[in-house]
Specification:
Elements lengths: L11 E3 L5 E3 L7 E6 L6 H12 L1 H6 L2 E7 L3 H10 L5 E4 L4 H5 L3 E6 L2 E6 L2 E5 L5 E5 L7 H12 L1
Parallel strand pairs: 3-4, 4-5
Antiparallel strand pairs: 1-2, 3-8, 6-7, 8-9
């Protein structure tokens, strides 16, 4: 996983409407890039809905939120509509970005080991550097945790 103070790797991925987003498009702004395993699963839904519920606070602090998973554009579109998510979801179907950020790896779930996206986030500063890397994110508290960190620097 990429550590604090490193340059955040740039990427270009389609969102839930098929529009391309590049991380470099957001230079000059704080960006939360959060990686999650799968659309419409319990933990991922909880995390997305918590970010949705705190989204006005992210907006007040002028923070861009980008969720990334290896699901398709169509899957993201359904997920975003179903839960009224006001932020961008990006489709990394080729697993390039999850690997770039070091969040693709072995996971253990109910005694089974498989490969997949690890739940992790990166808070990126306006210069494009990783301000903070969050490992083993807890879906129910992550949004508040990021906002508390942001309030310390803004």
């Amino acid at each position: 996983m990429i550590a604090k103070n490193n340059k955040a790797p740039d990427f270009a991925l389609p969102d839930q409407e098929g529009r391309k987003h590049k991380l470099s498009d957001y230079l000059g702004k704080w960006v939360l890039v959060y990686f999650y395993p799968k659309d419409d699963t319990p933990g991922c839904t909880k995390e997305a809905c918590m970010i949705r519920d705190y989204f006005p606070d992210f907006s007040k602090l002028k923070v861009v939120v980008l969720g990334i998973s290896v699901d398709s554009v169509k899957s993201h579109e359904k997920f975003a509509k179903k839960y009224k998510l006001p932020f961008t979801l990006l489709a990394d179907e080729n697993k390039e970005v999850v690997k770039q950020y070091g969040v693709w790896g072995k996971k253990k779930f109910m005694g089974r080991v498989s490969e997949g996206t690890l739940r992790a986030s990166f808070l990126i500063d306006p210069q494009g550097n990783i301000f903070k890397a969050y490992k083993n994110v807890k879906p129910e508290i992550h949004a508040k945790e990021v906002l508390e960190d942001l309030k310390k620097v803004k």
